[in-house]
User: Fold Carboxyl-terminal processing protease,Provisional from Gloeobacter kilaueensis.
Amino acid sequence: MAGHLQDKITVKSKVLPLDGRNFWHGRATDCQASTQSGTSFRSMTSPIEKVARCLYSLALSAGMLQQLILPLKAEPAELTQADKEVAGDFSSPFSIPFDGAPKGSVEIQVSINGEGPFNFLLDTGAERTVVYEEIAQKLRLPLSESGIKPLIVNGAGKNIVQIRRKAQVKKLEIGKASLKNVDLYILPVSSHSFSSTLSRIDGILGNDLLQRSVFQIDYESQKITFFQSRDCTQAVDPVGMPIFFLDKRKPSISAEIDGIPAQLEIDTGSFLSLELYPFFVETQNLLARYPRKIEQKVEGVNGIEIEQMVRAQKLKFGNIEVSKPLIYLATQGKKDTSSRSISGNIGNAVLSRFSVTFDYQCQRMSFVKNNSFDKPFNYVDLQLKFQLPKGVVTYAPLESPAGQAGIRVGDKITAIDGVPLGELGPKELYQKSRKPPGETLLITIERKNIQKDIQILLENAL
Assistant:
C-alpha cells in the first residue's frame, strides 16, 4: 500500500485528555491520502482499520517506524469468582508517587483495613497479591486454608515456597482507589530487606488487582497513574504493541535477543535488565554463544541463586531496539519447572528507560522512551565486601580492582568519597558503588591504626 502513496498525506489529530475511554492519546481521528488509484481511506468501513492503515502508510512513507503492530481483537483477561467479588474500582484517574529504590524497584504505599501505610512491591510478574506473614499477624487478619489450591511462588531463588493460606480484608487502599473484600495471600516468610531493593517490603501487589485498571509507570518522574479500564474498540494506539498472558495473568511480549526469537514476561518486580530461564539458555546454547560472563548472586523471595551475567548486542521488541543490555542467564533453580513457552523476563533496568503503560483489558502495552533510554548498561564491580556498621573488609581478592588498588581483608573502611561510613545508608552505599565508568571512588581505610586514602578508577567489568 505504501508504494501507491503520493507525496501529499493529510493527517488530522488531537491530543485527548487522559481517561479510561481515550487513554491512548495522540491518535489520529481523521486521515485521508491521495493515491494513484484515487482510493481514499474514508471508503473503509472500519474506523479502526482506516486509522491504523493510514498511520502505517504514513510511517513507512516518512521512514519514521520500522514496524507498526496493529491492534488485536483480544478477549479480556479472565477474572476468577473471587476477583469478581472485589468491590471498588479505579473509576477516577489519579497518580501516586513511588519509591524507586536504587536498583529500580517500584514500591508504593498501601493501607489495609485503615492501617499502614505498608510498603508494597508493584510486581507484574506476580499472579496474586500477597502480604508477608508477620504483617498478617500484626493486623490480626483471619487466615483460612479452605478453598485455596497451594500456589508455588516462582520468584528469584532456588528454594520452593508455597502459599497455602489467605485472608480476606475488608478494605485495601491504593491512592484514591478503595477496594473491598480483597483476598490477600499469605507469604510464609518474614518481611525483610532485600539486597535487590535495599528497603523493607511488606507485600506484593500482583496482577489479580492490577488487571482491574489501566496504569502507567513513569519511571523518570517516579509516578504511577491509574485509569479506568476502557472500551477496546474505541482507541487505536500507534506506538503500542500487543501482549499475551502467561497463566492468563502475567503480561508477556514477543521479542528478539541478538536475532533469537523469545517470549518475555514484563516483570516490574525484577531489578534486572533481562533474565533468561534455564530451558531457553540450554536450547539456545547461550553459555557458549556468550563466552565472556560474570557469575552473579540473584536474590528473591525464594532465596539466592547463581546466574551468569553476559552482554548482548541488541534486544528488540516492536519497533524498539535496546542497545547492549546486560543479560542474566539462569542455569539452575526452580525456573526449570516454569512454562517452556516463556523464555525469560524483562525487568526494571530496561523498563526504567520508558514510560510504560499496561492495559490488561485490551491486551496492549505502550513504551515511550524517556531521557534514560540511551544510557549505557554499565556494570562496575570492585569485588569488595565489608561488614556494616564497622566497615571491616571480608572480601577483596588480590586480582580484583579493590585488591589491585591495595585494599586487603581485615582493613577497616572509615569513609567513602570523604563521607564517614556511619553516615551512609544502604541506598547511598549502593549509589556510590554504581558510579559510572571513568569516574573515581575514594575509599579511606584504616590499617594498624594508620589511615590511608585509596583512589580507584572505575571501569566496566563486562
DSSP finds nine helices and 33 strands in the chain.
